[in-house]
Amino acid sequence: MATSAPVHPVDEVPPARQLAAFGLQHVLAMYAGAVAVPLIVGGAMKLSPADLAYLITADLLVCGIATLIQCVGFWRFGVRLPIMQGCTFAAVSPMVLIGTTGGGLPAIYGSVIVAGLAIVLLAPVFGRLLRFFPPLVTGTVILVIGISLLPVAGNWAAGGAGSAEFGEPKNLALAAFVLAVVLGVQRFAPVFLSRIAVLIGIVVGLAVAVAFDFTDFGGVGDADWVGVSTPFHFGAPAFEASAIISMLVVALVCMTETTGDFIAVGEMTGRKVDRRSLSDGLRADGLSTVLGGVFNTFPYTAYAQNVGLVGMTRVRSRWVVAVAGGILVVLGLLPKLGAVVAAVPAPVLGGAGLVMFGTVAASGLRTLARVDFEDNHNLTVVAVSVAMGVLPVGVPTIYEKFPDSFQTVMNSGISAGCVTAIVLNLLFNHLPGKAGSPVAEPTGLAAGGVEDGVEKPREEVV
Question: What does the alpha-carbon distance between residue 134 and residue 218 come to, in Å, rounded to a whole number?
Answer without folding.
Answer: 50
